[in-house]
Structures are given as structure tokens and as C-alpha cells.
Amino acid sequence: MFESFDATLLARFQFAFTVSFHIIFPAFSIGLASYLAVLEGLWLLKKDEAYLELFHFWKTIFAVAFGMGVVSGIVMSYQFGTNWSVFSDKAGPIIGPLMGYEVLTAFFLEAGFLGVMLFGLNRVGPKLHFFATLMVATGTLISATWILSANSWMQTPAGFAMNDAGQFIPVDWWKIVFNPSFPYRLVHMVLAAYLTTAFVVGACGAWHLIRKTAPRRARKMFSMAMWMATIVAPVQIFAGDKHGLNTLEHQPAKVMAMEGHYQSHPDGAPLILLGIPNSAEKRVDYAIEVPKLSSLILKHDLNAPLAGLDTIPEELHPPVNVVFWSFRVMVGLGFAMLGIGLWSLWCRYRGTLDSNVWLHRAAIVMGPAGFVAVLAGWVTTEVGRQPYTVYGHLLTAKSVAPIAAPAVAASLIAFIAVYFFVFGAGTFYILRLMARLPRDPMPDLDEGPLRSSGIMPGLAAHGTAHTNIQGGRHGV
């Protein structure tokens, strides 16, 4: 049945499927670990029990997301020895140690302090517990560092030599780890993780503001999330621009596909906003474009020449349709996030951040936007690298294991069935947890005479005990 399918294409699709499931969980857990550290730090600093209640609420969600990320990552890594054994043999001397460093440093750090963070507050004390939370957050960032270093090396390989067997042999580990695209990719991905978490937290806060289930804690969640969107979204757009300039220098074919530039433009290239790439005719049909703006963005000169795909052999072209559209999805969502951030800033200035229902509804709609943007960016990066696994040195067609298409297809179908069941259930459970933010135990006492009179601490203690009884593991 599957004999007519190409084994390489099926292997690529299987890896794309598993990595797409995997990446959404680390993207969430990286940002959420840092958010937990901020919440606990604010609790220790301000002695406001609401921050501790939010910490307990989000730490349960973090534990589930972290577990699903670990499981999906382990499954994904097995494909290096099955579908991609040739790649593992040739690039293993470099990729293997980088992945090993991630386990030895980041994963052990996270695993060592995760249990303390989840269960140890009443056992080790607040300060040591806060240290454990910081170590978990640091571990997620270290993990991202090593994984992105390995991926960036595949995009912009450096510091290596080739032996007689065609293997990549490390020569300079500093150049390998800090390869030309690594700093840009790391910043871009970490900021994306923070934005992803911010919009999930913001959507959760907006949901509870609309339902009025926990207005005090929901306001804090929503306010913190909108501050993150307001500050980080423009920084991310700037970082993305710098990453694009780096990509133009080292992977020009990828940028040509992103921009839809089939032909060279000697007198300034237009920015194609929308259109339908036509690879057969080497043009973008129905293009909506701004003259010379692409040259201004990429070269900072309206009349700067830009080379097109006509300067590269056709067999080395990346799939333009996929890269063209995934890039626009990523950029479009990035500007939508910026718009939400600016809208929230205006509402904050007007004093309507907590009461603007349309902003809350927009935040709920934008809740999954970070995940979609991360996936779109990952597709742009990985598909834009084709037809190489190690850019410029190892073709994808020569990286796949000698396996038959039916075997890959059978495992792909099994992956699809199991992943949708297991991770679908996990995602459903996370959404249920988000929808069950315990109600505020007492009326909203943020302001007013009760707080200033000294009665508030006693009421807060009573409310905390009440939450502990009613809220189960979310209590204090």
C-alpha cells in the first residue's frame, strides 16, 4: 500500500510530527518556570498570599506540561537511531556530545530540584524552596541553550573537519557551540517561550475575569501577562529582524523562500505581503507587495540589490510554498501580540484593564497564538534549511536510514494515533486545571479600610485556610 511513497519524505514527516508535538511543551515550560520563580519571589518580597496561591495553581500545570515534554522528547530522540541512523553516524561526534551536555547539566538540574519545588515548601522552608524554583527555571534555560546550540550548528556549521569516513569531527568546541546563528536563535526562542506563556496566562486570567470566579488573582495574572506582552513583543520583533539578517548572511536561500523572491532584483526588491507562490512558473501569483521595502529591511537601502532563487540550482531550493506561508503566520501573530500588548497598555492608562471585556475576549482568542507562532517559526527554520540536514554539507536524502516506506508509514500511523490520544488527554487535563482557579475565599480586599486597619492579615489567614480546604492541592 505504501510502496509508492518516498521513505525519506515519510521519515521527514514523522520527525516533523513528533517534534511539533514536543516543542510546544518546552516552549510553555521554559516560560512557565520563570513565571513561577517570579510569583514566588513576589510572595517573599510583598508577603501577599495571592502570589503564593497563583504559584500553587500554576505549578501543577507546569508539572503536567513538563512531564509531557519529557515523554515526547524521549520518543522523538529514538528516531535518530531508526529513521536517521546515517545522520547520527555522520554528525554524531558533534550532535551527540551537545545532547549529552544538555542531559548532564540541564536535565539533572531540573530533575534534582523539581521534587523540592513541587512538594517541598513546608519541608525545606520558603528561602530554600525559592532557590529550588530558581534552579528549575535555570535548568529550562540551560536545556534550551544546548538544544538550540545543536540545532544552530546544523543550520550554520562551524568548528569541524571531515574524516575519511565522511563524519563531522569536532575541531573547536567554542566555534561549534557558539556557531554564527546560535545567539540569535537562542534569544528568539527564549523570547518566544516567554510570549507563549504570557498569552496562556493572560487568556486564563481573562477567562476568570469574565466569569468573575477569582477577580483578585485573575487581575494579577492578567496584569502580569499583559506587561510581559507589552515589553517582550517589540523586543521579539527586533530580535527576529536581527535573526533574519543573520540568516540572509549564512542561509540566503531560506530568506529568498521566505520573501518569495524567485527572481533577483538588481534595483531594490519589493516586500511581498501576500500572494500564492508558483514554483512551476517561478513567480508569486496575485502578489500584494510594497516596492523596494524588502531591500530596505534586509539591506537598509531602498535600491540595494537582492539575489533570488534564480541564482541557486533548482535542486537546492527549499520548498517555497511552505516557508513562504509559515513565515507570514509567524510574523502576523507576532504583530498581533504586539497589538494586544499596546491595547492593554492603553487600557491600563485609562484604568480599564480589568473591566474591558473586549480586551479580555481578545486575550482568550490569542491564548494559543504563542504555540502557533512557535510552530510556524520552527517550520520556517527547518523546512527553509532543506535540502540539507547539515546546511551546505549533508543532504537530507543522504541522511536517512536504509528503510522501507511501509515500515516508516506504519510507525507514523502508530505515532499519530498514540500522540493524539495521550497528548490530547494531557492537554485537555491542563485546560481543565486552568478553568478551575479556586474562587477568592473572601471579598476583594485589595483596597479600603480593612487593609489599612490591620484587620486584613487575620482575614487573609482565614481565607488561606479556607482555600486549603476547598482548593486541595492549590491551597496554601
Task: Give a verbal description of the structure.
This protein has 476 residues and is mostly helical. It has one domain. The protein has helices spanning 7-46, 49-78, 85-119, 121-124, 126-155, 173-177, 182-211, 215-250, 252-259, 293-299, 320-350, 357-365, 369-385, 405-435, 449-453, 456-471; strands at residues 160-162, 168-170, 271-278, 283-290, 388-390, 394-395. The chain has a two-stranded antiparallel sheet with strand order 1-2. The chain has a two-stranded antiparallel ribbon with strand order 3-4. The protein has a two-stranded antiparallel ribbon with strand order 5-6. α1 (7-46) runs antiparallel to α2 (49-78) and α9 crosses α11. The N and C termini lie far apart (58 Å).
Q: What's a concise summary of this model?
A:
The chain contains 16 helices and 6 strands. By secondary structure, the protein is mainly alpha-helical.
**Structural class category:** mainly alpha
> Which overall shape is indicated by the principal axes computed on the Cα atoms?
globular
The total beta strand count reads: 6
Task: Summarize the main sheet.
Answer: 2 strands, antiparallel
Residue-averaged pLDDT: 86
User: In order across it, which strands form the biggest sheet?
Assistant: 1-2
Order of secondary-structure elements: HHHHHEEHHHHEEHHHHEEHHH
Percent in helix:
over 70%
Low-confidence stretches: 442-476
